[in-house]
Structures are given as C-alpha cells and as structure tokens.
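dumping this here before i forget
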Amino acid sequence: MMKLVDRVREDEVMDQPDLDVARHQAALAGLKRVNWWSRTAREIWASLECLSRERRLDHLTVLDLACGGGDVSLRLAQYAEAAGMPITLHGWDKSPTAVAYATERGALAGLQNVAFFERDVLDDPIEEPYDVILCTLFLHHLEIPQAEALLRKMGAAARHAVLVDDLCRSRLGYFLAWVGTRIVTRSPVVHIDGPLSVRAAFTTEEISGLARTAGLEGATIRRHWPERFSLTWVQP
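structure:
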C-alpha cells in the first residue's frame, strides 16, 4: 500500500473549470453521500451547539467557505430548525455550477435561512462579520502558503470561532477513500478525486503547525471517523 509519507497535491477533476455540468452535478451528489457517511455535518453541528450555548448567542451567523453543493450547510440548517436555534448560513463557492446546485437544493428543502453566493474564497474579502466561519474538504486542495493564508483570513473574520473539517493523510484513509467512494457513488469524478484528495491531505501534526503559523493559537484538533480531523479555534 502507498506509504503517503510526503504530501502530494495534484489538480483534481472537480477543479477543472470546463468540467461538464452533468458530471459536476453527479459528483456533487456523490460528495453529499460521502459527507453523510462521514457524519461531517453532525460533527460541526455539535460544535455550533456548544458554542451557541457557552457564549449565549441568540442568533448564530455562519459562513461556509468552498461549500460545493451546499449539503453541509443545508444539513446544519435542518439541525438548527429541529433544535429551534435561530441561524443564518451563507455558502461561498467559486463554481457557478456548485452555487446553482446548492441554491436549488435549498429551495427544494424549503429552507429560508440559507443562501449561496459565487465567490472566490481565496481572493474575495470577507467584508461581513460572521460568528463562525467553517470550511470542509477544501484545505487539501491548496498549497501550503494558500492554506495558511485562508486560515489566517478565517480567524480575522470570525467573531467567535473557526471550524475546519478535512481528510487525514494516512494509508487507512487512502484505502477508505478508494473503497468508500466506489460504494457510495457511481460518479467517476469522485472515484478519481477521493484517493487524490487523501494524498494531498495534511496530517494532524502538519495542520497543527499550519494553525499556529496562521495565528490560530490554541486551536484544538481531533481525529474522527473516517480518517478525518476537525480543527476548532475559538476567539479568546
């Protein structure tokens, strides 16, 4: 099995600007199933609930960077609605296909507290303050200086917390990505990109160093199923 000692980042199929819309939408649907299987939204929701309770926030505002098809934001909105927690969620993504897909899914779900916008998360400024800024399955797409800059940007714009959830680079993670993507989706884009993503992912030691360099001192990092990490940084 591949050793995965060193990080290897390659452009993924989903990163191609000329990717056929139908293939892109199928990949977004496949990633939704991957995220459901990985319990990503549930992990993030637990952090949001805890933060809201501890800081006595009457209304939570959340920005989801590189939101893709919006499935995490939409699931968080559903959790909040069920819990009776007032929340506003905005999702940013560079892809017009992803933003249109997420917007349609939000409308079909009848969710009024979620909106998606076409933004470049690396270059566009975060001009409106948010209580929480989160990012899932995106950091591994970036070169190290870009990842540091994004974490710094998130920390500067978040009133209360930064949440990051992503893959861990490991042999088990590579195996799970190769097998799991073929179980949960027929999308060939996801089949290709899943293992590539693990090769480009960070270890928990690497992400801890990135967080410190980006000024997120005191960030906590926890590994969780299936070979993922969650990073939580709370404003002092």
